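Extended Data, panel c. Modelled sequence:
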Amino acid sequence: MIQADHLSQLARPYGLGPEDLEFVRSNQNHVYLGRRGDSRCILRISTGRHRTRDQVVAELAWIESLAAEGVRACRPIPALNSDLCVTVGAGDTNHIVTCFEHAPGRKIMPSDIAPPIYEKLGGMLAQLHAHTLKLPAGHAAQARHQWHESRLLNEDVADLQGRLSPAFLESLTDLMQKLRALPEAAGYFGLIHADACLGNCFVDDERLWIFDFDNCEHGHLAQDFATILYDSIYCRVLNQFADAGLNDRIAPLWAGLWKGYAKAGPLAGMDALLLKRFFLLREAVIYIHYHRTLDVPTLNESFKAGLEVMRKNVEAQSHQVDFERLAALSCTAAGLRARS
């Protein structure tokens, strides 16, 4: 959290005061729920985290472009001076402050975890991917970094020297080298959300809204699928540790995702090895995130055992998920579209 006198300075450009704000979380950024009469907004305060003002401006340009195309993305709200983001000094630190529309509707609940919500998510992802492939070369959003330049894979790793095993770091480097060797092929590579999980969506009258584009980057479209598979399918149905029924629980949710995507998405199926490598890269990122944000030695033994499974998965570049089965399901969905 940010101390009250600093928060007052940081919120003032948007006509908000500390009394209008409710703390939500501090992770990559400090996030507050703002209230203006009957309306709500989200105030996001960045103290750096290796993100520049130019990078934030590019993020906001993409969100505006998506919203203009009818994508239900939460748009930035201008400051009182009409700028979409402002730089404010508070204490000894410069902060990048942005304000966003609050998504209508509600969070995704455990009771929603069934194929229909994934079909909606697939449809949303199809819109994002179709739009990114149409972005002109000179568009302001194109200033975002490449996927391999992510702070999550560079500065965060450097900050954890001595806390990540040599075998983990070696495998992470190998994974990135293999993935960087992929061609940035037209129709397969572009600006991606990079965190398009159900946790960054609200559902409103059966329609999804998406937000939190802070990690958007240039990458392979397959990366968004790997993120959803890890964050919003695998972790949602995992019973503490993988069991014999894990892949049977994953399959219908993944099929729902592709049913929604195949209606308008540019990808015609998923390669199993590519999906596996991006999935393992996502697991590595989450493992790094836990070590950056948590006091690992004080965690309970069950959580630490889960971290050990993650470490071993990345080091061995193997996983309990049946990627061949998922690739076949994605191709089936794409084939049904082609025949319809």
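The domain at 4-101 is CATH 3.30.200.20 (Phosphorylase Kinase; domain 1). This feature is highlighted in the accompanying rendering.
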